[in-house]
Specification:
The complex is a heterodimer of chains A (about 180) and B (about 190). Chain A is about 70% helix and about 5% strand. Chain A has about 180 residues and is mostly helical. Chain A has one domain: Transmembrane di-heme cytochromes, Chain C (Fumarate Reductase Cytochrome B subunit). A two-stranded antiparallel ribbon of chain A has the order 1-2. In chain A, strand 1 and strand 2 (about 120-125) form a beta hairpin. In chain A, helix 1 runs antiparallel to helix 2 and helix 2 packs across helix 3. Chain B is mainly beta. Chain B has a single domain, classed as Lipid/polyisoprenoid-binding, YceI-like (Lipocalin, Beta Barrel). Chain B contains 2 helices and 10 strands, in the order αβββββαβββββ. In chain B, strands 1, 2, 3, 4, 5, 6, 7, 8, 9 and 10 form a 10-stranded antiparallel sheet that branches. The radius of gyration of chain B is 17 Å and the shape is elongated. Chain B starts with 11 loop residues before the first helix and ends with a strand. Mean pLDDT of chain B is about 85; it is low at about 1-20. The chains are: A mainly alpha (about 180), B mainly beta (about 190). The complex binds protoporphyrin IX containing FE.
Chain lengths: ~180, ~190
Amino acid sequence: MARRNDPTHYGLVSRVIHWAMAVLILAMLVLGTKLSHLQPGLANLWLYGLHKTGGFIALTLIVLRLIWHRISPPPGPLGGGWTRQVAIWAHRAIYGLIIAIPLSGWIASSATGLDVMFADTWVVPPIAPVSEAWEHWGFLAHRVLTRTLMAVLVLHVLGAARRAWQGDGTLRRMISG
Amino acid sequence: MFMRNFLALCLILTSAAAMAAPRNYVLQATASNVGFETDFGPDKITGQMPVTQADLSIDFQNIANSKVAVTLDVTGAEASFPFAAQAMKGPKVLDSREFPNITFLSTAVARDGDGATVTGNITIRGVTRPEVLHAVLYRQQGAVAGDLSHLSIRLTGTIARSDFGAIGWNDMVGDQVRLDILAQIQRVE
Ligand code: HEM
């Protein structure tokens, strides 16, 4: 089993990162949505910390993934025609969103003036000034971007399911190489 | 909670030895504290703020003749969990960098049951407003009856932080802040 990608196959590294991020990001979307409906109290404060820690792990994974793509470029989508174009753009949109989403969360959290913690132990440096405007627009961006990601992910999953249904090997090559 | 510290809780105002003129007292810096409490969702945030200065002039014969001035150190504030202290001292609430002190200056003192009602101006975040605190004087632990050289004063009251523009996190942290100031004071001879 090759670790590296080749022009038609995903290597082990890309596949592991892909599915790890899929699980993590789905969990983050659920947890984030839960947080936005929560009345904060001592009993649930840790969930905010968990969300931030998960977000930083996701951000690290996406950076590693992009670095890996430089070292070992992934294969392009199979097939041709409009579905190929949609797949290419959906993938680009997902990359853009999964970078912008944790960054917007980090910006908005920095702007509150409270320490942003990783794993309840390390203080992550702020990347925005302490400002209500940054906080407001940062969380608004976080919300709009996560909603957009949910929509693009539906498209992404439907596309993958359609190709699996057609049996063109797209889903299989992301699962077993 | 402070009560525990006093073996002989005796009400000075009623038992004070006759003393003609108002006497001046200053803070014994150690062991003086402002306790506060506010609501956080279903829970409470508690904490303390050090008292940096307390100047009192107490007239045991005519309590209305008394004066109280207290200064608190916002930068030294602590709270029951780390985020709360940071939030409280930050720009959205007390803004300790701009406004490192909270002050209280009495304008009127009136006898009220066992203690006194102290009306005065509180300055928080540079905003000054009249507020009313309830004061009780105690003899300090170990002091003999009639010894008024060292006293404890407890001031309690409630303020609305929004009155002072300290509105940060008002969607999750209560507006009402309950104060419990305990200062150990000694007479200036
Ligand atoms: C993959 C990364 C992330 C995903 C998928 C994600 C997802 C979400 C979602 C869906 C929400 C609910 C938005 C709403 O409906 O208002 C949310 C809220 C939130 N996110 Fe994230 N997030 C991520 C990373 C981060 C990071 C890195 C931070 C901070 C360092 C962060 C901080 C927050 C906070 C504080 C909220 C709560 C906002 C509120 O109180 O309403 N997020 N997140």
